[in-house]
Amino acid sequence: MDISSNQKDALTELINIGVGHAASTLNFLIDHKIRLTVPEIEIKSLQELKGAPPVEAESSSVSMNFHGDFSGNTSLTFPLESARTLVAVLTGEAADSAELDDLRSGTLAEVGNILLNGVMGSLSNMLAASLDYSVPTYQEGYLNNLLGYQQAEAVLMARAIFYIDELCISGNIILFFELESFHALLKAIDEEVTA
Hints:
About 45% of the residues lie in helices and about 30% in strands. The chain is an alpha+beta fold. Strands 1, 2, 3, 4, 5, 6, 7 and 8 form an eight-stranded antiparallel beta sheet that branches. The two termini are about 20 Å apart.
């Protein structure tokens, strides 16, 4: 799926603004200094995403639906080992603690809630779009299986890098759109940002 370089730059900037707001919120809530960046985004079809590695890796995913001026689903996904490391750092539990598995779903659901709301809020505010969101849900499994229920025709994928203390943890923010909604997003970008 082709978009202009101006549209791609605008999307990257909008997602970075949302990620920056989310990092500020997370820094307020926990004892660790978190820096979040989104160095690049990619636009793919769902088939391309399903065919790209590492779809067979075990993953943790927080997802929520959104609807309004454009509709779809957004997810924050981590390889399972990265998810465990992130939760250990955020909760102060040892990485091999038996309680870490119990804490993982709640902790990642909250991180996902903050990050995904930051990104969607940035898109909504900067594009003057009306959006409503569902309550985020947490899942674990193979990424290909987690993607299996999606009906999207356009996928925006942004690699999110969490810098916490001495650690660098990478995850993905993925936005799934029907083609009509994706075109509505691009139109809003052209009208509000790149004009």
